[in-house]
Amino acid sequence: MSTVRIALGDLTGKPSVAVFRGVPYATASRFAAPKPIERWSGACDATQHGPIAPQPASRLRAAMGEFVRPQDEDCLTLTIATPGTDDAKRAVIVFLHGGAYLSGAGSLDWYDGSVLAGDGDIVVVGVNYRLGAFGFLHLPGVAAGNMGLLDMVAALRWVRDNIDAFGGDPARVTLVGQSAGAHAVMCLLTMWETRGLFERAILQSAPAGWAPQSREQGRASADALCRALGATPADLVTIPTARIIAAQTQIARENARFADIRPPFLPVFDNLAEPTAFLRAAASEAASRDVAMIIGTSREEMHAFFAADPAMNPPDPEAMAAVFAELTGSADAVALYRRRRLGATEHELLGDLTTDHLFLFPSLAFADAVAEAGAEAWVYEFRWSPAGSKFKACHCIELPFVFGNFAAWADAAMLAGGNQVEMAALSTAIRNAWCEFAEGGDPHSPGLLWPPYLRPTRQTMCFDTVLGAVGDPSGAAWRGGVEV
User: Fold this and answer.
1) Is there a catalytic annotation at residue 357?
2) Which residue in the list 58, 179, 298, 445 is annotated as catalytic?
3) At the top level of CATH, which class does the domain 2-483 belong to?
4) Is 179 tagged catalytic?
């Protein structure tokens, strides 16, 4: 056993790369902002994970696999992996998981930071935060709003105040987010509460095309929840957890639009409820705070959602034409996408389109804004996938490479049939880059020349069986006939 003493009391964890599980960082009652944790007496057992946030089944279980964990509203805990509880002042990575603000947990085995911490000699912290209506209900007089984001702020403050006891340097914190977690990083950049809490950020597959909700949109989602429950706003504080989760699922089903994965509950920022305003505000804050950034996507993000969806095999032609017309201005744009992906099925073309407009184009626009505002930025595209995989280089596929823990992903269909030698080598390259960046340098390492991102050339690192930077991978600023 390993024991570490912090201001709040002692913690016992497992040795080697010491892992401290279920570490409480805040407390919160339903719909309220989190409060600092009180000091405990004696030693707190940090060898077992605590419960995860209440949630429905993941929408990506067909690609990623299933997970089952006890759930409870009392879920605000951290998982900390460290090479040593000494005074080494190591760089720190704080990881915010994805799941559309509806599912997931930083304590899942998928995000175990032991390999990353051991190989990189850094401290890795996974965060559990509140999800769905419990984390993002906006209802004045009932829900404070943005509770999940405030949980993240509380976690970052806890890291600032305590991570030195785990061998970490509170002045060298890199905030890493994937999917909704990356979207959350963009939101956190715009909040005054986060100033000084992290110096670097990595955005993996941010759905940057989602602007936060306006107050009006947030209130509409709250009203829909009340209708689904047959309840008044005041009733929401006492309604059983399971009923609220079921009502969320009903709302998502009722509001579902063809080829649209936007969830019913998102952060609410009235002044940022327009995509361009959101991107510019986050970029401006990154520059003013001197936050260097890595920003990246996977080549076929939306294939994780579409490949196993019966409604997409094949998609309805009229619905597909309507989506192309809505996003590109012309249903005829499908022909341009067809020329780019030879022999493509209809759902693959739709996946390419929606990947571009939810992930790639807005992420490049954000990188443009970051670079133009004067902050340092590096951009990547993850392109590797197993030969013949229907999921291709889909949403979330880079995660096991970042964490280097493939055994935890044994049931992930998106990795099935992958060449183990390729996977191990690619994981090493990515982990080296992430750790070099977190240490305070450029994300390049020996044999991996990764130039910074600038608007004229859009130099982008391609992670595949061959590594290297290319200029403007979207095709001379065009992809599918739409200028980025």
Assistant:
1) no
2) 179
3) alpha beta
4) yes
